[in-house]
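Q: Hi! Curious about what Bile acid:sodium symporter family protein looks like structurally. Here's the sequence.
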Amino acid sequence: MKLLRDTVLDPFLLSIFAVAVLASLFPATGTAEEVLAWVTRIAIALLFLIYGARLSPRDAWDGLKHWRLHSVILASTYLLFPALGLALRILEPGLISDDLYTGVLFLCLVPSTVQSSTAFTSIARGNVAGAVVSASFSNIIGVFVTPLLVIALMTTTGSVSIDPGSILDIVVQLLLPFAVGQLIRPWVTGWLTRHSAPTKLVDRGSILLVVFAAFSASMNQHVWSSVAVWRIAVVVAVCVLLLAVVLTITWYAGRWFGFPLEDRLVLLFCGSKKSLASGLPMAAVLFVGQPVGLIVLPLLLFHQIQLMVCTVIAQRFARRPESEPSPAASAAD
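A: Let's find out. The predicted structure is below.
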């Protein structure tokens, strides 16, 4: 009961709901939408600059060379998810339409998130260096792997092309600020160690900005009015089931591979995420002439569900005593 009460009344989770409702009622349009996009980019870049400043070069190198962890995360993103997406074909066309199933399968093929995966890992006191490397690498190769998986697993129309700017965006917005943070670390690490509030503010603030931007975009594109309510409910149930299965598998896989708790948290958060920021531009390119709004609806729903669920998980791990190996270990057993 205490966990349920803490979950329902968690200020950060309530903030996510409030921001989603606010964006649905008052979506950003025109100049405000452009300003929101830039503010979100700046917040994410600042987040990674702070991560770079807090991480020692030794920790960053340890995160880079942890190939076993990265391999398992990539397997979850590009093998486990697609397999589950193909299995969900049994729901078509009885419970979900052809376009919605295309969207469900597409969400299973996009890369992991970078910003929220790393933010949740940081909140849960996991291996942030490992999260930065895994999530960034997932996005970089996803620029090539996702279109190839789309071509291999579903029928598309129109020409398929890859925008080289996607790789540049990842480098400029994520990896470059992280590198700058590493460079300025000697001058700012002491202050950041003594003051945790700025990092927490950027962690949570960047997630809230992403939620607001996503719901604003969905309202501006009239996504919610183009499909029956009961079909949306089915897609929500499918997204919840999909996330629950992947969270369970990644958690136990981390224990099976013998990863320490900090690395299991990286696998849990990075291996279960799907990127709205990467998925939406890819969908616009890959599904030319098709109902893109409907196709990205499952990804939009999954993205919000994963933020809310992982908020609860990250907050619970954050409250664990330093000497406790895992607050969920006994429950998981």
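A: A fun detail: The CA atoms of residues 106 and 150 lie 7 Å apart.
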